[in-house]
Amino acid sequence: MTPQQLAKVIHYFQRQGKQVLVINDYPGMLAWRTVAMLANEALDALQKGVAGEADIDTAMQLGVNYPQGPLAWGARLGWQNILTLLENLQRHYGEERYRPTSLLRQRALLENQHEH
């Protein structure tokens, strides 16, 4: 997209009363990859017995003012989707931080079994 085309698109959406953000093309999309990392970390805390599922979500809602907790987001977006995204990010970057927890793998498997 040329800078002129981008300016036209931005102007169009601003006329509709929308706030426009321009984000560079990046693997995993900004919002999805952030939510996926938070959900994976929350599952790790749950698996290690740090806190219960409801407590983790409540802590994140009250502590950082998220509209939903990371586990509620994970369930809403789909555990298989989160697993696939993290696996793709790990493959693309080769970084351990994107490694899915075993609990995420279990939830994705259960989700797939319920769909079939």
TrEMBL record:
<dbReference type="InterPro" id="IPR013328">
    <property type="entry name" value="6PGD_dom2"/>
</dbReference>
<dbReference type="Pfam" id="PF18321">
    <property type="entry name" value="3HCDH_RFF"/>
</dbReference>
<feature type="domain" description="3-hydroxyacyl-CoA dehydrogenase C-terminal">
    <location>
        <begin position="28"/>
        <end position="108"/>
    </location>
</feature>
<keyword id="KW-0560">Oxidoreductase</keyword>
<dbReference type="InterPro" id="IPR008927">
    <property type="entry name" value="6-PGluconate_DH-like_C_sf"/>
</dbReference>
<dbReference type="GO" id="GO:0006631">
    <property type="term" value="P:fatty acid metabolic process"/>
</dbReference>
<protein>
    <submittedName>
        <fullName>Probable 3-hydroxybutyryl-CoA dehydrogenase</fullName>
        <ecNumber>1.1.1.157</ecNumber>
    </submittedName>
</protein>
<dbReference type="Pfam" id="PF00725">
    <property type="entry name" value="3HCDH"/>
</dbReference>
<dbReference type="GO" id="GO:0008691">
    <property type="term" value="F:3-hydroxybutyryl-CoA dehydrogenase activity"/>
</dbReference>
<dbReference type="InterPro" id="IPR041040">
    <property type="entry name" value="3HCDH_RFF"/>
</dbReference>
<feature type="domain" description="3-hydroxybutyryl-CoA dehydrogenase reduced Rossmann-fold">
    <location>
        <begin position="2"/>
        <end position="27"/>
    </location>
</feature>
<dbReference type="InterPro" id="IPR006108">
    <property type="entry name" value="3HC_DH_C"/>
</dbReference>
